[in-house]
Amino acid sequence: MLVGVVRRWAISALATGLLAAGCSAVPPQPGSAPSVAAVRPSGQTGSAASPVSSPSAQAPSESLRPSTKPVDDRSGKQLGHPFTVNGMVVVSAKHKVSAAYRPSVGAYGLTPAAGKAFAGLKRAIEKAGLRLYVVSSYRSHAAQQALYASKLASMGRAYTQKYVAVPGTSEHQTGLAVDLRSPGGRGTSFDNSREWRWLRAHAQNYGFVLRYPDGLTKVTGIGFEPWHWRYVGVEQAKAIRALGANMTIEQYLRLA
Prior knowledge:
- With 256 residues, the protein is α+β, with helices and mostly antiparallel strands.
- The chain has a domain of 178 residues: Muramoyl-pentapeptide Carboxypeptidase, domain 2.
- Helices cover 36% and strands 9% of the residues.
- The chain contains 10 helices and 6 strands; from the N terminus they run αααββαβααβαβαβαα.
- Strand 1 and strand 2 form a beta hairpin.
- Helix 5 packs antiparallel against helix 6.
- The N and C termini lie far apart (92 Å).
- 26% of the residues are buried.
- Keywords: Carboxypeptidase, Hydrolase, Protease, Signal.
- One of its GO terms (biological process) is proteolysis.
- One of its GO terms (molecular function) is carboxypeptidase activity.
């Protein structure tokens, strides 16, 4: 009787000691993997199976960009479709489109995706107690031609060449660009408004970027336009913004 009691006491003490040391008192079954707790180094916290980052993994802003400079080799009837890099439409003096390019537009004079995104942006800025108004969005090739001729006659060549795109080179023909104003400013004074400062902080969350930043006319071909915002999609907009507040589409896509 006494021997049995001593034996049970010894087994119980051994189990308690093993558990205190972080080990299982039950031996692993044949073919089973050892417990994670049993193989974790002393002092280590968290999961023993934490993933290790691959040295070749790219940051999101880099993985969305082309690795080399894209080549625009469109000509003739191909100009009826815009130059597109990694899903992003590029229309500029170097990447023209013809009058045949007519995207489908809807609310706010934007493509369906851009219009839906702008509606969300507008709700958000109004929730912040601010107001935005659309001055201009989609313009056909013919409308751009009429605008260019009008500004040339009324404002002169220097102003027109700086602020008005030649027909076939305007982002407004894409249905992805929108010119904005607010109660506190419009045109060249728009960047003095609270609405503009809100856009600079939050527009990328709705897929929009400032298309023609200050001091980068040599890159974009257009002077500083605080009112001109371009829809590129949330993922791309955040990637562009992550590279700098004044990052241009040309630089982002390695076109400049």
